């Protein structure tokens, strides 16, 4: 076994990207925003289905089960498709599934069926899973390998922008009190028709983009003769090249950490609006706008995190943010009014860098197995399917108490950032 590699933050001289990648980077970054909208719209639907379809909190948690469960199903097929047909074809497949799932909302609304809606969400989320499996290694490869962490966090900042837009759209068109269709499914049907049409237009535009050759963003780097003190490591000549992914401990732990990361995210977001209504006395629409504010804090956290990673090793920043999340969960669970609600808002700030940083640390030094590794990391997102129904069972009795559960998740993430991230 090789000794643990020393993690050194990228030097300031490493370029963020290259001119030839700018158009492609802009398109791929927009994908992060698109699935941010879709994921947080699911949390708005969670509350709307409680009202219109008369399902319990635990049952409404199955919305997240349908969304994140698709990641477990689609993760490996998306990776195989990407390996066979390339990044661009993977993006187009993801957008096509996204649009098809959105259009399925029309017959689901006509039938008024919770099961049908979950099926539509599953198809849509298969598109999201494909986009995530493709977009992370894609954006990481659009420039210098030493700044791949920065590019992924930068792109994820626009995922944060989408996460802000999602609750605003949902709050205005679906949860707004007094509007004609606030208590039926017509607004949901119309909104997802518009979303599906927009996605098709974006897919058509991306079809005509010329994608330049993409670099291996996760090649190992060692101290060298370059000005920044880095040089690409020579190709491996030992048997490690033929090892399976299970023989990379840092990758295995990254999948585990990603499972718990998205579990915490799914549970926290699924019952945010319920917390605002039950503990703060807000109307559903107002609670959804505060949900959007929490997403602003997540976006801010990602921009700040991207900047700090030029001076602080990504794993150390990840561990620090995990500790911050544990403190926030403890405050939220006390149900102390505004102090607890502010802590609930701040959870997204501390959550901000977790997903992209775990993703990037997990892919380090996988070489030719990077695309396959990306698929398994996307499958780790299934944690978001498992956790919300469990939190919902507790939330049926007290929504504040349910926020003790994500502490388990953040403890695992802290251990990954503190020790288990090391490449061996």
Keyword list:
single chain, 424 residues, mainly alpha, Growth Hormone, Chain: A, 2 strands, globular
Notes on the protein architecture:
The structure is a single chain. With 424 residues, the protein is mostly helical. The protein has a single domain (19-219, 246-420), classed as MFS general substrate transporter like domains (Growth Hormone, Chain: A, Up-down Bundle). Helices cover 70% and strands 1% of the residues. It has 17 helices and 2 strands. The protein has helices at residues 22-52, 57-60, 62-85, 87-103, 105-111, 114-140, 148-173, 186-207, 249-270, 272-280, 284-308, 314-333, 338-351, 354-363, 370-379, 383-395, 406-420, and strands spanning 221-222, 231-232. The protein has a two-stranded antiparallel sheet. Strand 1 (221-222) and strand 2 form a beta hairpin. The chain is globular and about 50 Å long. It starts with 21 loop residues before the first helix and ends with a helix. Residues 1-11 and 222-240 have low confidence and may be disordered. The chain crosses the membrane at residues 21-42, 62-82, 89-109, 115-142, 154-175, 190-209, 251-275, 287-305, 317-335, 341-363, 375-395, 401-421.
Topology:
Layout: H1 22-52, H2 57-60, H3 62-85, H4 87-103, H5 105-111, H6 114-140, H7 148-173, H8 186-207, E1 221-222, E2 231-232, H9 249-270, H10 272-280, H11 284-308, H12 314-333, H13 338-351, H14 354-363, H15 370-379, H16 383-395, H17 406-420
Antiparallel strand pairs: 1-2
Helix pairs in contact: 1-6, 1-7, 3-4, 3-6, 3-15, 3-16, 4-6, 4-8, 5-6, 5-8, 6-15, 7-11, 7-14, 9-14, 9-15, 9-16, 9-17, 10-11, 11-13, 12-13, 12-14, 12-17
